[in-house]
Amino acid sequence: MPREAEPSANEKAFLLKALQDEQIRLDGREFDQYRPLELTFGDEYGVANVSLGKTKILAKASAEVTVPFADRPLDGIFTIATELSPMAAPHFEVNRPTETEVLLSRLLEKTVRRSGALDTESLCLVAGQKCWSVRVDVHVLSHDGNLTDAACFAVVAALRHFRKPDTSMENGVLTVYTPAEREPVPLGWLHSPFCVTWSFFGDEGETALLDADWMEEQVRVASVTISLNRHGEICQIAKLGGVPVEAVALLQCTSVALTKVKEFSTYLDDKLAEDTKRRDKGGFMAELRAENDRIVG
Amino acid sequence: MSTESPLVVLPGETIDPSLIPTHKKNPLRLGPGLRHIPPSEIVPTVAGQLVVDHRKTSMWIEYNGGRYIPSKGDLIIGQIARSATDFYYVSLSPYTPNATLPHLAFESATKKTRPQLASGELVYARVSLANRHMDPELECVNSSTGEADGLGPLKDGMVFDVSLGFARRLLMAKSREEGKVEVLEALGEEGLAFETAVGRNGKVWVGSESVKTVVVVGRALRETDEKGLGVEAQRKLVKKLVREMR
């Protein structure tokens, strides 16, 4: 397995000097400014393409009918699969989870699954026999730092965009309609959690930055990921080792995180509305019209 | 240099024989990107712009490749990976085999006075040996004269990644006219004091007293490279960045 490329001593020293002495980041951002966030949806329902600067993530949601778990007959199944391949960076290997990969999937699990963002009871079709199994595959296309925030955003966007086939239950017979027969329906969504990752620098973790790129990630001494939704409900806070940080600083980070999450939320809502409008075929009246297109001479 | 629109070729295309420079005495020299298939075929192996120089009866292809392939005589910026008994292992680009740099290939280095370079430090070196079958070798001294000529360890400063084609244009002797790269001169004219070292492997080292200067130079280089800015746009970018800095 090739070892991860390490930045040179000059680069590390310069980055720290710029941050601590001059208070500037290499790309000229503010300390609490995210890189430009872009979201595009695919033609199929449930495909979300997120790019945060040069970090690019693709999330795809899909669903199939399957047997529920024996100990949870009334719940559907919901899994998030993340796999870092050499496409993201050459030192990742398929089927050999690195620390980055394990942490990423744990954080996504806690943020989206455990917080109950997706209502799994609504995925149940026949108690104990049939249920929907929703699966989100997260592909990291390019790794330039801050995979967590971008991946969480992509997962939430993909799930909210996804439509599962409509079903009906009559006399004990379950019918699953194809998209041609009946319009697919959205998933039962309760709240939208987003991750915000802070990185700390300095001997006592005094300097805090949002959205570190790859170079800044190599040099940071601690990081904390806060997951919350726009109502201020915190799903989880993860600070896994690193230099200890002042409690007051952590509280400040959380409140700034709330502002950022509200921005993410509005952005996602806008993008979803735009996508719905684009797909909207005008409804019944548009289908019934018999006008020809006017040819302007 | 001809002023016609540049001819872009794809790998495997046939080249119009009228474009090939001929001379009574001088043999035709082929530069990177072209391959001679005897008896008389010349075939490009990369995609890029075909450049012909009638004065030197040579032709080559300007291309912007992704991976750096070391060739003899190139100046590069390498990162010391570790030190072995007689030489340093130097990494030219990530995830490729390391090059070797002998301990004694520095100016006025003897067995007793070797330079002490730690892992992670940057060196500006010249490639002394490079072929397909062996790991490349470097030197930090001009082997014929024994002088350093500016090679050696790079202290402080910051190194930025640029594309290979951009690094080549920066290293051209007439970078303003032929390479269309004016960014560094424009920054100097604005009054910023800095020094640079350009490595053909896609790295540019920038050193200066002031951290802000280095950051501005780095951003200017990166944006010129990523967006492919022309000369006028480069000047505007420089003015904008310097204004933001002040």
From TrEMBL, chain A:
Entry protein name: Exosome complex component RRP45
Origin superkingdom: Eukaryota
InterPro entries per the UniProt record, alphabetical: ExoRNase_PH_dom1 (IPR001247), ExoRNase_PH_dom2 (IPR015847), ExoRNase_PH_dom2_sf (IPR036345), Exosome_comp_Rrp42_subfam (IPR050590), PNPase/RNase_PH_dom_sf (IPR027408), Ribosomal_Su5_D2-typ_SF (IPR020568), Rrp45 (IPR033100)
Biological processes per GO annotation: exonucleolytic trimming to generate mature 3'-end of 5.8S rRNA from tricistronic rRNA transcript (SSU-rRNA, 5.8S rRNA, LSU-rRNA); nuclear mRNA surveillance; nuclear polyadenylation-dependent rRNA catabolic process; rRNA catabolic process; TRAMP-dependent tRNA surveillance pathway; U1 snRNA 3'-end processing; U4 snRNA 3'-end processing; U5 snRNA 3'-end processing
Location(s) in or outside the cell: Cytoplasm; Nucleus, Nucleolus
CDD domains: RNase_PH_RRP45
All copies of domain Exoribonuclease phosphorolytic, residue ranges: 33-165, 192-258
Any one Gene Ontology cellular component term annotated for this protein: nuclear exosome (RNase complex)
Protein family per UniProt: Belongs to the RNase PH family.
GO molecular function terms noted in the UniProt entry: mRNA 3'-UTR AU-rich region binding
TrEMBL record, chain B:
Subcellular location: Cytoplasm; Nucleus, Nucleolus
Domain Exosome complex exonuclease Rrp40 N-terminal intervals: 28-67
InterPro entries from the UniProt entry: Exosome_RNA_bind1/RRP40/RRP4, KH_dom_type_1, KH_dom_type_1_sf, NA-bd_OB-fold, RRP40_KH-I, Rrp40_N_euk, Rrp40_S1
GO CC terms of this entry: cytoplasmic exosome (RNase complex); nuclear exosome (RNase complex); nucleolus
Source superkingdom: Eukaryota
K Homology domain boundaries: 157-212
Main localization, broad class: cytoplasm
ATP-binding recorded as keyword: no
A biological process term (GO) from this entry: poly(A)-dependent snoRNA 3'-end processing
Signal sequence range: none
GO MF, any single term: RNA binding
Assigned keywords, A-Z: Cytoplasm, Exosome, Nucleus, RNA-binding, rRNA processing
Gene3D superfamilies cross-referenced by the UniProt entry: 2.40.50.100, K Homology domain, type 1, Nucleic acid-binding proteins
Family: Belongs to the RRP40 family.
PANTHER family, per the entry: EXOSOME COMPLEX COMPONENT RRP40 (PTHR21321:SF1), PNAS-3 RELATED (PTHR21321)
Protein name: Ribosomal RNA-processing protein 40
